[in-house]
């Protein structure tokens, strides 16, 4: 009976520095004079920087350090989901629910026994609470 291997859970096999070096050598032998390095080779080189230093990869593959660094950053940015930003070492705090909403409660009782209670939550209002209080006090005149 044949064993079935679950390829979904199997770790992705990354090419070694030596294997990518052979790919670059093969490309350099067959390339046209001064042609650009193909994107798939840049991606392979950038992937190596997850396990090796930029310096080690740039020397081993005979690549310009700055160009490799640019492709590594481009590779990281491409791996981010839409709307995400690269991790800059900061912690983002969502304080919207943590900050208490300002609240004010005013209770008044007029000499004639009338009562008024005003409760305000949040920021600025379209009305003036002082004017409401004055109107309440004048209602018995």
Explain the overall architecture.
With 141 residues, this protein is mainly α. The protein folds into two domains: 17-79, no CATH class; 103-138, no CATH class. The chain has five helices and two strands, in the order ααααββα. It has helices at 17-30, 39-48, 54-61, 65-79, 129-138; strands spanning 103-109, 115-121. The chain has a two-stranded antiparallel sheet. Strand 1 (103-109) and strand 2 (115-121) form a beta hairpin. The longest helix has 15 residues, at 65-79.
List its traits.
5 helices; two-stranded antiparallel sheet; disordered N terminus; mainly alpha; 141 residues
Structural class: mainly alpha
By DSSP, the count of extended strands is 2
| Share of helix, binned | 40-55%
Parts with pLDDT < 50 across at least 5 consecutive residues: 1-11
Oligomer: single chain
Helical run tally: 5
How many distinct folded domains? 2
Rg, please? 34 Å
Spatial order of strands in the largest sheet: 1-2
The percentage of residues in β strands lies in: 5-15%
* End-to-end distance: 101 Å
- Average of pLDDT: 78
String of helices and strands: HHHHEEH
Largest sheet: 2 strands, antiparallel
Q: Identify the overall geometry.
A: rod-shaped
Provide a concise account of the structure shown:
By secondary structure, this protein is mainly alpha-helical. It has 5 helices and 2 strands.
Layout of secondary structure:
Layout: H1 17-30, H2 39-48, H3 54-61, H4 65-79, E1 103-109, E2 115-121, H5 129-138
Antiparallel strand pairs: 1-2
Helix pairs in contact: 1-2, 2-4
């Amino acid at each position: 009976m044949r064993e079935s291997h679950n390829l979904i859970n199997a770790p992705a096999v990354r090419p070694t520095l030596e294997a990518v070096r052979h790919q670059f050598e093969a490309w350099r032998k067959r390339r046209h004079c001064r042609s650009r390095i193909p994107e798939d080779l840049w991606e392979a080189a950038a992937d190596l920087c997850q396990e090796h230093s930029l310096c080690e990869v740039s020397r081993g593959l005979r690549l310009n350090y700055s160009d490799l660094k640019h492709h590594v950053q481009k590779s990281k940015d491409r791996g981010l989901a839409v709307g995400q930003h690269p991790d800059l070492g900061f912690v983002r705090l969502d304080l919207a629910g943590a900050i208490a909403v300002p609240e004010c409660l005013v209770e008044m009782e007029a000499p004639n026994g009338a009562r008024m209670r005003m409760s305000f939550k949040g920021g600025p209002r379209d009305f003036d609470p002082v004017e409401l209080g004055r109107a309440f006090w004048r209602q018995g005149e």
